[in-house]
Design brief:
- Helix content is 0%, strand content 52%.
- The chain contains no helices and 14 strands.
- The strands form three sheets. Strands 3, 5, 8, 11, 13 and 14 form a six-stranded antiparallel β-sheet that branches. Strands 4, 6, 7, 9, 10 and 12 form a six-stranded antiparallel β-sheet that branches. A two-stranded antiparallel ribbon has the order 1-2.
- Strand 6 and strand 7 form a beta hairpin.
């Protein structure tokens, strides 16, 4: 019958789980002059660096099994407006949301990195996605291609 390797142990005792869900996605182009407003915008990702288990589609990760998932969202904004712009990175899962913000009152237009790293509890078929928004300032910030969304089933 069909057999696939679920767990590998090498001669040094290193253990890998090649079937565990894991993904890392980016975008191939910058999102230029992002909108200003109170509404969160879904972050799009059109480039899969890898998608072990094919659980990432249409900008959303869907947990195939119940477990604890390491999720990382890194958003890099360039040309963020120094005056009043406040930028948000929001990681939304079916159970709860995680956020970070930055900007507002900077000395000059600049690059802002907003990172979220979390171990999230997810049930089978729960979802995770990244959103962003800018409140205040002018629509001049660009969400650049070094931004990414990644995740891995820890157990």
């Amino acid at each position: 019958g069909n057999q696939s390797t679920q767990l590998e142990i090498d001669s040094n005792g290193n253990i890998t789980s090649p079937a565990n869900p894991a993904f890392n996605v980016q975008n191939s182009a910058d999102h230029l002059n992002i909108a200003v407003g109170a509404t969160y915008i879904d972050k799009t990702f059109d480039t899969e660096i890898f998608d072990q288990g094919s659980n990432f589609a249409s900008n959303v990760f869907t947990a195939p099994v119940t477990g604890k998932y390491l999720l990382i969202s890194k958003l890099a904004f360039q040309s963020a407006d120094a005056t009043d712009a406040v930028l948000y990175n929001l990681l939304v899962t079916s159970n709860r949301s995680y956020s970070t913000l930055g900007g507002g009152g900077l000395d000059a237009d600049t690059v802002i990195h907003l990172d979220i790293t979390v171990v999230a509890d997810m049930d089978a078929n729960d979802t995770a996605k990244v959103q962003y928004r800018q409140i205040g300032g002018s629509a001049q910030a660009d969400l650049v291609t070094s931004s990414f969304f990644a995740g891995y089933l820890l157990g």
